[in-house]
Amino acid sequence: MAESSLKIDHARYILTLDRQRRIIQDGAILVEGGRVSRVGKAAELQDARADRVIDGRYLVITPGFFNGHMHISYAHPVRGIFPDEQASPLGHVFNLQSAMTEDEEYHATLLGLVELVRNGTVCFLDPGSTKFPDACLQAYEDSGIRVVLGEAVTDQDAPWKLPRYPATEAVARTTAFLEKWNGRLDGRIRAWAMPFSYETCSAGLLQALKRVVDEHRTGLTLHHNSGTKARQDSVARHGYSPTAYLESIGVMGPNVLLAHCLGLDEAELDSVARTGTAVAMCPVTAAKGGRGVPEHGRMPELLTRGVKVALGCDSPNNSNHLDIVRTMNMAAIQYKDARQDTRQVPAEAALEMATRHGAEAMGLGDELGSIEVGKKADLVAFDTLRPEWQALWNPVNNLVYNADGRSVHTVVIDGRVVVDAYRQTFVDEPRLFARVQEIGERLQARTGITFPRSRWPIS
Ligand SMILES: [Zn+2]
């Protein structure tokens, strides 16, 4: 339930991310009925009364953060088991994921949600990894978070253990999923089509799913990368580069979100921009996974073309954290290094991707992504009474370059305070942590997927 009214008063700074990108010093926000009803200088809102008033003197307020590619399922219980030299853990990932029980997935999800909201994420897209959404519904409800859900489908051979169905069944399952889930929890759940990738799905399946999401006015996401080898393979198989292929079969557009998007060439970048297709990039996964950002990273070119780019944390065993503030930091610094040019991806662009543009990429820009009158009240308050926030001159630079999610003090979703002065109240954390550790032990024993725990002796 939304609090009936809430006021944040005398905020040190409000980063509105509105059309003019106003930054308000000594600002105030009034929330009524789950929406922002007033925002401005504290003096202008002096007359505004609310059921609850939060003293904002030491707080920097931003819009809530969007995480456009965030697998939540198997990974928390076995986070960090893959040694650095494991080139691609994907085979193990899908075997572990398919071995999860309903109860295990519920607890792993709960931990994921705790980590997300405590770091300021108010909305995430799970790219079809959740096998038991019914079991996880209670966790979504209790945490108050927004989630874009779907069921991963494929109809072709894949190198990994992915859910595979005949195309007609994949379409029927997706349609049933959309009809069951879209709009639940007062609209906090959105349901999308989630074909895994163009390599693992036929053109017919992708086209049919695109038609389904057009009809249901919802979205479609898939994993998408290119690069020299992928282009050669795709040209040999389809006669087009990966991105031109998707465009040629009509599976691009504003309701399509391409995840990762490394290795696109100029023509592919133009195709993304021309079709209004959105992108979710995972800069920490790219760096940690040694994906070659200097050669394959195209974030600056996507931004220059006006493409809506969201940021993602990918998975607790890829990035391996769920902290969108650290992800903004990586987005803002990795291209400066890769291109040896400090003008690449300014701090402001990183913050836009995590808020306003992330919301737009996920089809939620009309209602969310900025602090403006009439929009839903999704807010994050950062505590500046911490050493990393000193000295405070440019709050955007302080947020993107100095801070991380640990200074998230308070989080509001739909006008409801879900993190209150660092505390969430929907789960007993120590108990949950012990439970997830046990699940990890069981999961490794059951699947036989284990690695030496450390290069150094643990006694
Ligand atoms: Zn993914």
Small molecules in complex: zinc ion
Low-confidence stretches: none
Helix content: 25-40%
Strand content: 15-25%
Number of distinct helices: 16
> Strand count, sense and closure of the main sheet?
9 strands, mixed
Distance between the termini: 49 Å
Q: Report Rg.
A: 21 Å
Shape: globular
In short:
This protein is α/β, with parallel strands linked by helices.
Structure characterization notes:
- By secondary structure, the protein is of the alpha/beta class.
- Helix content is 36%, strand content 20%.
- It contains 16 helices and 19 strands.
- Strands 1, 2, 3, 4, 5, 16, 17, 18 and 19 form a nine-stranded mixed β-sheet that branches. A four-stranded parallel β-sheet has the order 6-7-8-10. Strands 12-13-14-15 form a four-stranded parallel β-sheet.
- Strand 17 and strand 18 (416-420) form a beta hairpin.
- The protein binds zinc ion.
Write the layout of secondary structure elements.
Layout: E1 5-15, E2 23-32, E3 35-41, E4 52-55, E5 59-63, E6 65-67, H1 90-98, H2 102-118, E7 121-125, H3 133-143, E8 146-149, E9 152-153, H4 167-181, E10 189-191, E11 194-195, H5 203-216, E12 220-224, H6 228-238, H7 242-248, E13 256-260, H8 266-274, E14 278-281, H9 283-288, H10 293-296, H11 299-304, E15 309-311, H12 324-338, H13 347-354, H14 356-361, E16 379-383, H15 395-402, E17 408-413, E18 416-420, E19 423-424, H16 429-447
Parallel strand pairs: 1-4, 1-5, 6-7, 7-8, 8-10, 9-11, 12-13, 13-14, 14-15
Antiparallel strand pairs: 1-2, 2-3, 5-16, 16-17, 17-18, 18-19
Helix pairs in contact: 2-3, 2-16, 4-5, 7-8, 12-13, 12-15, 13-15
The structure holds zinc ion.
The site of zinc ion has 6 residues, from loops.
